[in-house]
Amino acid sequence: MSGAGFDRVALIGLGLIGSSLSHVMRREGLAGHIAGTAHSQGTRDKAVALGLVDSIHPSAAEAVEDADLVVLCVPVGANAEVAAQIGPHLKAGAIVTDVGSVKGAPLRDIAPHIPPGVHLVPGHPVAGTENSGPESGFAELFENRWCILTPAGGTDEAAVARLAAFWRACGSNVEIMDAVHHDHVLAITSHIPHLIAYNIVGTAAHLGEVTQSEVIKYSAGGFRDFTRIAASDPVMWRDVFLHNKEAVLEMLGRFTEDLTALQRAIRWGDGKMLFDLFSHTREIRRGIIEAGQEVDAPDFGRRVTKEPAGGGEA
Ligand code: NAP
After folding, report:
1. Domains parsed from the chain with CATH numbers
2. Which of 193-202's residues contact partners 24+ apart within 8 Å by CB, and which partners?
3. Fewer CB within 10 Å, N- or C-terminus of the chain?
């Protein structure tokens, strides 16, 4: 087993993130034993068939017995329920983390159930695709992507360093951040873009009832990219918006103001304003490519291979 690994890892939830973690832990030798559980028998059976786990358990309480690292890979809204189930069964000295796309809420929901002597270090791998379920994972998902850890003040530094080393061994770059700050940053970089995609596809679908053939026929013109993001898991995204309410509403207010300014520019023929903004946003795209967070290749939602830059991540 690699030095950054753990003797026994428990994966609670075996969807995109849980199964990807299993693949990368196997590839890098990061777990002596992978114990797992999921909500439904169907997913548990699939996880066994796919070789994602060394042992499968009917409940989270049983899966975490004797685990050194426990990773909650469930929708953010399920954290509290799962934490209450596992609390009494956690091993002294274990590290408990999660992968949720919102970080203030997990601290609030999970922390009360973590007994003294167990280290809670919430985390968020900023990596994903629009797919979900145990078959959607792949070992390269976290490669060269950020993993943000948001430990509360006073958390055992050795536990934070150990989890950071684990994520680095999974291929990620690790950043430590305050949970509230995380939720503001992710609101604008991930949550609002998803909301816009859901909204624009919803609006087009309403129009589609009138002009259905046009919506589908001309969908290459930008719309197709939005449909890819808007195909993201409904449970996961419902929970993201319900649990990052304040930051999303604040950012949405600013977004709406800027949209109104654009509306005015179009109404009054202010071409300079439009040109300046579009030039600036093009520079931002170049910066993202230069930072290695995206490839400079056309996609339009047609990519068929599984690539780390697949987008749609939370
Ligand atoms: P997913 O593919 O839908 O998988 C979720 C898993 O959680 C499923 O195996 C589900 O079991 C299980 N589950 C749900 N409720 C449970 C419960 N009460 N007890 C035990 N297992 C339960 O979701 P995902 O994309 O892996 O997302 C998981 C987490 O990662 C979310 O918090 C999300 O915010 C975060 N995240 C997602 C992305 C992304 O792009 N997808 C990126 C970064 C972080 P069943 O299959 O039996 O229902």
Report:
1. 6-177 (3.40.50.720), 181-290 (1.10.3660.10)
2. 193/229, 194/229, 194/230, 194/232, 194/237, 194/240, 194/314, 195/241, 195/248, 195/252, 196/226, 197/226, 197/227, 197/229, 197/230, 198/230, 198/237, 200/226, 200/230, 201/226, 201/227, 201/230, 202/230
3. N
